[in-house]
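Problem 12. The chain below contains 275 residues. Write out its predicted structure in token notation.
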Amino acid sequence: MIIRNFARTMLLACMAILLSLALSAAAAAASFEFTPTAKKAFDKMLAGATATVSASLKKQHAELQTLQRQDAEWDGKINALRYQNEEKENKLRKAIREIDAAKIKALDSASAALKKQHEPLFKLYDSQKTQLALARSFKNKELTSFLNMQVEITKAAVQAAKKKQSAKDAELKKAKADANAKMKLIRDMLEANEATETRIKAAKASAGTYKSLFATESKVLGSAVRSGDTTATTASFIRMIAYQRQIIAQKASMHAYEGRIAATIAQAEAKHRGF
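Solution.
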């Protein structure tokens, strides 16, 4: 048990490190920075512009950087929550398959044991009926009467045994049906997340569209900066900031949807604990 817990702890720690590294790489890839040449051109533009224009451009650049940091933070929150949701749902789905498993196994064993217990009785009954048929064929009234009495006694015992077996089998069948109903109930609760997953995909696609626009606009910004055009630079910053805000809005929605999925999983877990 100690070794298993240690292994699990190490696995989770490694996954956390890998996730952190992946997030750092994603943040670096997503962030916009001037190239050294463009940065020199931007600094030169600021130095040559009026104080008002220079301050405005600095403010826009700083705002864009702040928004990009927020973007990376949202990525971290989304990925962490998604990993947590996937881990919990996988664990729950495995647990669902084990609902009432011990009860069903016990009932199945009891049914099989009862059937085996009755086998000698059923064989005896078949044997007695064969003997009775043979006695009748020989037209031996005394033997037929005796065997007929034996068959009737055994028949009553067989009927009682069959009734008992039927009750035990019905109990097993009901237990299986009840377990399946419980499994279906929880799985249906989890199925509600499919619609939320669709919304996440839509928000992700929308964010991707704005990312493409952002990337394209970053080239326009670089060109405007290198040409020293403060008006075009200002306009480009405005568009990039707008795109970045849209990206953040979509990621905020994605995180909210992941939160909705987490709530659904929590409800399903509570229902499972109640069984």
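Discussion. The chain has two domains: 2-99+191-273, 101-185. Students who got a different answer should revisit the alignment rule from Section 12.3.
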